[in-house]
Amino acid sequence: MIVADKKPIEEIIDIVKDFRRLLILGCNECVTVCEAGGKKEVGILASALRMYFLSQGHEAKIDEITLERQCDHEYLEEIRDAIDQYDAVVSLACGVGVQFMAEKYHSTPVYPGVNTCFLGATEQRGIWAERCQACGQCILAYTGGICPVSRCAKRLLNGPCGGSTNGKCEISKEIDCAWQLIIDRLKSLGRLDDYEKIFAIKDWSTDRAGGPRKVVREDVQI
Amino acid sequence: MRLQYPASVKIIRVPCTGKVDIIHILHSFEKGADGVYVVGCMEGDCHYNTGNFRARKHVEQARKILDTIGIGGQRVEMFNLSSGEGPTFARYAVEMTARIVEMGPNPIKLAMQKKQPDRAARACERLQN
């Protein structure tokens, strides 16, 4: 999922303090799971903003809506009739949702309520960690299901660098060396032969290096 | 024991303090409460293992939000005691009430009274009942 983190309320207040009719728009998908932008967080932010405006002596209309997704036309259409009632929208969706919202509704400013961080997994409640960098050319089949692109600080493809110490990365003792994990995993799978294969230079054109990306699937287009 | 504690304290019973979320605390202030305190079991004695730890975190987060928006985080507090500690319960009620009296009324309540006197009165009535 896409992992996001809450923006400090003071930062959001600073952005929206001049508006008087605000919609706090949550998303029921990834940001709900990582507890940054779901219905619950929408309620907390809306409540805090309502109190902030009242304490400043302003009468503000702060409404709460949480859509199933903000990255699909059909769900964003649900607010079409209501959008003109607001001076601005604070979207608690990931960066994708915020942008899609902005593309769809030109006359209403949209502000992000979360910091979108990475594609990751819930290691345990309250701890999310990066697992994928969406490089567009998945090599997990050859690395024991552990991604050196997202988990190695140097994105190395042919074994660890000299900074790997006791299974940890040189950038932090908290971070596992991805290649140590890969070797251990291949060993336990009895597939260490895969480690002997040399990766050719990776084609990074499908990564961000090739500019903004798009997937076009004619087979599913209507 | 026939212990006395301030009549301004309204008790809301919950199955476990872990049920008390940030939003419940914030809504109390939106509705005009001057202070909120959560009284949970002793740490380590939670029937659900971690309910009171969770409550403490919620209280801390609500406190941070209230500080940010200028309401005063000190209006929220978490206490722990066992069910046999009636006198401590009463003492916490007295302590918390004294703290809130010193801080003065909830600025949101005052702002509501100024803007919408009827709505504020209804909210206060709901809190008292």
Biggest sheet, spatial arrangement of strands of chain A: 3-2-4-5
Largest interface: A-B, 16 and 18 residues
Which radius of gyration of chain A do the C-alpha atoms yield? 22 Å
Q: Could you say which overall geometry of chain B the principal axes of the C-alpha atoms support?
A: globular
The low-confidence runs of chain A, each spanning 5 or more residues with pLDDT under 50, are none
Q: What's the N-to-C terminus distance of chain A?
A: 27 Å
Query: What's the rounded overall pLDDT mean of chain A?
Result: 96
By DSSP (H or I, 4+ residues per run), the number of helices of chain A equals: 8
Short description:
The complex is a heterodimer of chains A (222) and B (129). Helices cover 28% and strands 23% of the residues of chain A. By secondary structure, chain A is α/β, with parallel strands linked by helices.
Secondary structure topology:
The complex is a heterodimer of chains A (222) and B (129).
Chain A: E1 2-6, H1 9-16, E2 21-27, H2 30-33, H3 39-55, E3 61-67, H4 73-76, E4 88-91, H5 95-104, E5 110-112, E6 114-124, E7 127-132, H6 148-151, E8 168-169, E9 172-176, H7 178-189, H8 193-196
Parallel strand pairs in A: 2-3, 2-4, 4-5
Antiparallel strand pairs in A: 1-6, 6-7, 8-9
Chain B: H1 22-30, E1 36-40, H2 51-68, E2 76-80, H3 86-103, H4 107-115, H5 117-128
Parallel strand pairs in B: 1-2
Can you describe this structure?
- The complex is a heterodimer of chains A (222) and B (129).
- Chain A is an alpha/beta fold and 222 residues long.
- In chain A, the strands form three sheets. In chain A, strands 3-2-4-5 form a four-stranded parallel beta sheet, with helices on both faces.
- Chain A is elongated and about 65 Å long.
- Chain A is 28% helix and 23% strand.
- In chain B, 31% of the residues are buried.
- Chain B has a two-stranded parallel ribbon with strand order 1-2.
- The longest helix of chain B has 18 residues.
- Chain B has 129 residues and is mostly helical.
- Chain B is 51% helix and 8% strand.
- Chain B starts with 21 loop residues before the first helix and ends with a helix.
- Chain B contains five helices and two strands.
- At the A-B interface, helix 1 and helix 3 of A face helix 1 and helix 4 of B.
